[in-house]
Amino acid sequence: MSKARDIADSAATINALDGLTVDSTELNTLDAMGRGSIIYGNASGQTTALAAGAANTVLKSDGSDLSWGDISGVAGAAGGTEAEFVATVAIASGAMVGLRSDGTVEAIASSTVADTLTTHYDIPGNRGLDRIHCRYDKVNDRILVAEVQYSNAYFYVGKVDATTGAITFSTNSHQISQSSNHDSMTYDESQNLWVYMYQSSGSAYIYFATISAPTTGAVTGWTLTVNSGLWGSDPGTAGIGIAYDPYYQRSLIYYSYGPPGNSYYSVCKALTVTGPGSVTVSATRYAMFSYYSFTSAAPCFSVDHNNTLWMTAAHYDSQTGYYPVCTTHFPISSSSGNPGSTTIYKMLPNNYQFADAVAMAFGDTDDNGVAGANELIVAGVENATGTYIHYFCGYNSNGSATSPSLLLNVSPVNRLTRRHRGQHRVHMTYSKEVNKWFYVFQTHNTNQWLLHEVQYQLSNQSISVTYTDYFNGDGNGDVPNQIDITNDHWTLMPHKDGSTGRMAIKNWRFSFTSSNNTSFIGQAKDAIANTASGKVTLPGGVATGFTGLTPDSTAFLHGDGTVSNSTTTGAVEIGKSFNATTVLLKGI
C-alpha cells in the first residue's frame, strides 16, 4: 500500500476513492502516468489508462470502449465534411478532385485535343443520289439524313459519338416518292419531329412530311415513322427553305410563290406542327421583299441570343438587275403568319452579284460583355467580275425577341478568292467550345471541300479567316440545308464522296482544351493510390495548402486544377479564401 500513501491527503481525493474496490493492478496504473493519458473503465470493470492520441485526433466511442481517431467515419461529425472515396489513377495529397460517373474520384486536370477531321461515314443504302440533307436534334442528340433524287427521298436516323465523332446509323430506312428538285428540312423541338418540305415538280405545289424516331434503345434497330403528302395548297418552286423558330415554337417556311406560267416572288408563311402527320400553315402569305424576287438557291438560317430566327439569302433586285445578300428576321407571333415589320440588312450595295452562295451563323464572342449568341457573321461569294471573292461581315444583335435588330460592326471584308462549286456548296457553323466560326466550301475545279477557321472580334472590329484542312468531294451531290453542329461541337458535313460516289458525312471539331473541373467535389486530404481508398474534404470543409490567396475573396478552380482568386474562361467558383493558404469550400 506504499503507493496509496503517495496520494495527496485531501478531502476531495479521499472522497473520490471512498467505496471503491481497488486491486494492485489498478493502483499501479496511477503510478507515473504518461502525459496526456486518461483513465477509463475497461470491459472487465477495471480502471485502466489510455495513452494520448496522435496529433489532430479526437476521443471517440464505439458504444462500448474509447479510442483516439479522426471523425471522417462519425455520422454528423464536422458537418460531414470528409468522406472516403476510391481513386481512379493516383491522386496527390492536397489535389482538387472530381467525382466520376462510376462513383470514384480523380484529380482535376485539363487535356488538349487536336483539330479532328473524321473519316467518311457512308449513308446506308449505297444509292449515291443527287442531294443530301442532315438535321441534328439537339434535344435527344440524334441526326436525320435525307438522301434525295428527282423522284424519291430516303430517310436514315443515327447518332454521333460525343468523343470520336463516329456515326452509327439504324439499319432501317424509310422511302417516300416526292418528285422534286427542291426541298429542305428542319427539326421541330416542340414536337420532337423532323419536318421535310418539298415541291412536287409535276404540280409545283409545296408539301410536307413529318418524321419521328425512337430516343432510347439500340440505334441500329430504330424504325422511322413518316407521314408525307401534307398540305399541298400553294404553288412554289425554287429557293425552298424551312427553319424552326424556338421563340414562337413554330417553323418559318420560305419559297418562291407563283402559279405555273406566272412571275415568282419570295414569300414566307408560318407552319405549326401539332403531332405526327398534323400540320397547319398560316393563311396569310407574306411577300418579304417588295421588289426582290427569288433565286434558285436555298436560304440559310440562324438563331440569336433572344431565340429570334434570322434568314440570309441572295435575291434578285428587279430595280437594279443585281443580286444583293439580304439578312432579315421573321417574328411570326401568331398563326396568321403576319411577321409584322421587318428590316432588311444588305451585305453590300446593289452593284454586287451574290447569286447562289451565302452562309450565316450566330456566335458568342462575349468580348462586348453580352452573354449569348449575339454576334453574327454573314458570308457570300461575289462573282460579278468572275474572280469569286468571299466577303465576310459582322453584326451585333442588339434588339429584343419582339423587336429584333442588327448593328453592323465589321463592314464586308474580302478574305478569300476562290471559285466555289455552285449552289449550296458554301456553309458556316459556330463552335462555342473554342469561340470560333467554321467556314467550308467546295472548289469548282478540284471538287475539294476547303475547311477554314473564322474569328470575329467586336472589340477591335476584325474578322480573320484561316485555312485548316480539306477533303475530296464529288462534282455532284447538292447540300441545300445549312450544315449543323452537335452539342459536343462536331460540325456535320454531308457530301458526296469523291472516291466512292456515295453520300456520306464527315465531321470536324476544332482543337480544344477540356477539363473535368465541373465535377469538383473537394480536396484530397492525403495521397491516394490508384484503386485505393482515401479521405476527401468535401464542401463545407476547409481546403489548405494554397499560396497567394486574398482574404475574404471568391476562390475559383481552373481547368488545370489550380486555385486562385481570379476567374478565367471555364473556371468554376468553389468557395471563399479567408487567408493566403485556406479556402472554405462550397458546392458548385
Write a brief structural summary.
With 588 residues, the chain is mainly β.
Task: Determine the N-to-C terminus distance.
Answer: 66 Å
Strand fraction band?
over 45%
Give Rg in angstroms: 35 Å
Query: Would you tell me the structural class of the helices and strands?
Result: mainly beta
CATH fold type of the largest domain: Methylamine Dehydrogenase, Chain H
Q: Using the coordinates above, name the CATH class of the largest domain.
A: Mainly Beta
Helix percentage range: under 10%
Instruction: Specify the CATH architecture of the largest domain.
Output: 7 Propeller
Shape: elongated
The count of β-strands is 49
At the fourth CATH level, what is the homologous superfamily of the largest domain? YVTN repeat-like/Quinoprotein amine dehydrogenase
Number of self-contained structural domains? 3
Task: Outline the fold blueprint.
Blueprint: H1 11-17, H2 24-29, E1 38-41, E2 47-50, E3 58-61, E4 66-69, E5 82-86, E6 96-99, E7 105-107, E8 110-113, E9 116-117, E10 121-122, E11 131-137, E12 142-148, E13 152-160, E14 167-169, E15 174-177, E16 183-188, E17 193-199, E18 205-212, E19 225-235, E20 241-245, E21 250-257, E22 265-275, E23 278-281, E24 286-287, E25 292-293, E26 300-303, E27 309-314, E28 316-317, E29 325-329, E30 345-346, E31 358-363, E32 375-382, E33 389-397, E34 406-417, E35 426-431, E36 436-442, E37 448-457, E38 462-472, E39 484-485, E40 491-496, E41 503-509, E42 512-515, E43 520-524, E44 533-537, E45 542-543, E46 553-557, E47 563-564, E48 572-577, E49 583-585
Antiparallel strand pairs: 1-2, 3-4, 5-44, 6-7, 6-43, 8-42, 9-41, 10-41, 11-12, 12-13, 13-14, 13-15, 16-17, 17-18, 18-19, 20-21, 21-22, 22-23, 22-24, 25-28, 26-27, 27-29, 29-30, 31-32, 32-33, 33-34, 35-36, 36-37, 37-38, 39-40, 40-41, 43-44, 45-49, 46-47, 46-48, 48-49
